[in-house]
Amino acid sequence: MPGPVPEPLPDPANDDPFPAECARTHLYAGARCLVRGLPDPAGFAAAPTAVGLALRFSDGVTTAAELLVSDRGDLALAVAAHTTAAGTPTAERLWGVRRTLPAEGGVELVIGRRQDQEPTGPRK
User: Fold this and answer.
1) What is the pLDDT of residue 120?
2) In terms of DSSP bridges, do strands 51-56 and 18-22 run parallel, antiparallel, or are they unpaired?
3) For 10-19, 26-35, 93-102, which range has the lowest pLDDT when averaged over its residues?
4) What's the DSSP call for residue 7?
5) CA–CA gap between residue 98 and residue 46 (Å, rounded)
6) Which of 66, 82, 109, 117 has its CA 20 to 30 A from that of 54?
7) Residue-wise over 94-121: b if at least 16 C-beta within 10 A, else e?
8) Residue (of 96, 94, 87, 34) closest to 61 by Cα position
9) Which residues contact 73 (CB under 8 A, 6 or more apart)?
C-alpha cells in the first residue's frame, strides 16, 4: 500500500509561509528542520526574525508553525496541532530553538526543549 501523498509546499514569494523540512515524523530536543526560501539565509541565521513556516515532517504531513523571537532574542517554534500520517493526534506545542545555522539550501533550526510544559524534576 503506498504511503500518504505529500502536500505541496507553499510559495513564499506569494506571502505564504516559508517551507521547513523536518527529518522525522515529530519534533524533539535536538531535532533539526531546514527552512528554505529565505531571501538572505546567512543574514537570517545570524539575526533571525519572526516568520511563518509550513513545517513538513518526514511522513508528508505539513502543519502551520511560527518562529518567534522574544525581546531578549530567545527563539521559539510554535507548532499548530496536527495529526501524523499514522493517525496520531499531536497537540499544539511550543519548542525552544537552540540555534540557527546557515545550511545548503536555507537555514537549519536546531530544536531545544519544549517550552509549554511544567518541568518534571531536577535535571541530572
Assistant:
1) 63
2) parallel
3) 10-19
4) P
5) 13
6) 117
7) ebebeebeeeeebbbbbbbeeeeeeeee
8) 87
9) none
Cα-based distances in Å from 30 to 3, 11, 27: 26, 27, 8
Identify the band that residue 42 occupies on the pLDDT scale cut at 50, 70 and 90: very high
Residue whose grid cell is 514569494: 13
User: What whole-number percentage of the chain has pLDDT above 70?
Assistant: 82
Q: What gap in Å lies between CA 108 and CA 77, rounded to an integer?
A: 13
Residue for grid cell 505541496: 8
Question: Residue 110's pLDDT band (boundaries 50, 70, 90)?
Answer: very high
Alpha-carbon distance of 64 to 61, in angstroms, equals 10
CA atoms within a 13 Å half-sphere pointing along the CA-CB vector of 33: 30
Tell me the average pLDDT across 17-30: 96
Q: Which of 12, 6, 5, 4 is nearest to 107 (CA)?
A: 12
